[in-house]
Design brief:
By secondary structure, the chain is mainly beta. The chain has a single domain, classed as Glycosyl hydrolase domain, family 43 (Tachylectin-2, Chain A). Helices cover 7% and strands 46% of the residues. A five-stranded mixed β-sheet has the order 1-6-5-3-2. A five-stranded antiparallel β-sheet has the order 4-7-8-9-10. The radius of gyration is 18 Å and the shape is globular.
């Protein structure tokens, strides 16, 4: 199955390299991608109840499915973890497969605050009608120097690594127990930037671990300044250095994508194989966020670019 999904990812990357803009319902913020069988793709995004998009033609056309959570099914622990949390506002999911299930990490918070929590749910498939609440994974409070949002999950050689964070002290990394999917051992900061850093994505390619992040500010429509950066390390713990050798703990990060005339503030990327999905704010649609898909090229020296 792993080989089949990798082949599907490579085929989709080749298709997207020359593809037109995705069509259909592409409104999305903080997207995460899961590749299904054949030409089926799933994207979950920030939004009421955790929004779900699906494509059956390799990412060319998208339609919206029912959200993961409803008022009847939202976990009771949300109210205790984040008392000011409003309704079904769910942020920044990360989809992955593990132990025969599909899982989604997600965050709940209030804008600009670090009283936040990362939760977990599971189902038999990404378009399942019912999801099991798997509880709280990590939480943060005003006294903490981190923000428990924007989770990412790397599975590497049987080990599971959770990275997360936004502003405050920066991006953090911890190992998860493979059975409980809860932190085990130490947690470290692996990237920081006072001007704004969010949305980590860690992938492994050969001997290198690559840390993609979003710098600057989201959520301001056409005034958004998000841009995607990357560094790499020989260890998952870092140090992650950019192409110029600057440590991402010292504001480093090689530019992958920044805004242009139409698409403003690209960011909150997810990387699957050679595919990169992210949102950007459309200047031709009142600054609304839309799904963007593309493929990464890897130079002989190992550095990625769009």
């Amino acid at each position: 199955m792993k080989a089949l999904l990798l082949a599907s990812a490579l085929l989709l990357a080749a298709t997207l390299s020359n593809a037109a803009e995705p069509q259909g319902d592409t409104r999305a913020h903080d997207p995460t991608l899961l590749i299904g069988e054949g030409s089926v793709q799933h994207v979950f995004t920030t939004g009421a109840g955790l929004q779900r998009l699906k494509s059956v033609d390799a990412g060319k056309t998208w339609h919206r499915e029912a959200p993961v959570f409803s008022e009847a099914s939202k976990p009771a622990w949300w109210a205790q973890a984040v008392p000011a949390h409003q309704g079904l506002d769910v942020w920044a999911p990360k989809l992955f497969r593990h132990a025969g299930k599909v899982w989604v990490l997600y965050s709940i918070s209030t804008f600009g605050k670090n009283t936040s929590a990362i939760g977990l749910a599971s189902a038999a498939s990404p378009d399942a009608a019912e999801w099991k609440d798997e509880g709280l994974v990590v939480a943060s409070q005003p006294s903490d120097n981190f923000n428990a949002i924007d989770p990412d999950l790397l599975i590497d050689g049987g080990k599971l690594w959770l990275s997360y964070g936004s502003f405050w002290g920066g991006i953090r990394l911890t190992e998860l127990d493979g059975q409980t999917l809860r932190p085990t051992g130490e947690t470290r900061f692996i990237a920081r930037r006072k001007g704004g850093i969010e949305a980590p994505t860690i992938v492994r390619r050969g001997e290198w671990y690559y840390l993609f992040v979003s710098h600057d500010l989201c959520c301001r429509g056409v005034e958004s300044t998000y841009n995607i950066r990357v560094g790499r390390a020989k260890s998952v713990w870092g140090p992650y250095l950019d192409k110029d050798g600057v440590d991402m703990m010292e504001r480093g990060g090689t530019l992958i994508e920044e805004g242009g005339p139409r698409w403003k503030g690209p960011g909150h990327q997810d990387v699957v194989g050679d595919l990169i999905v992210r949102h950007a704010y459309d200047a031709e649609d009142g600054g609304k966020p839309h799904l963007r898909l593309g493929s990464l090229r890897w130079a002989p020296d190992g550095w990625p670019s769009l």
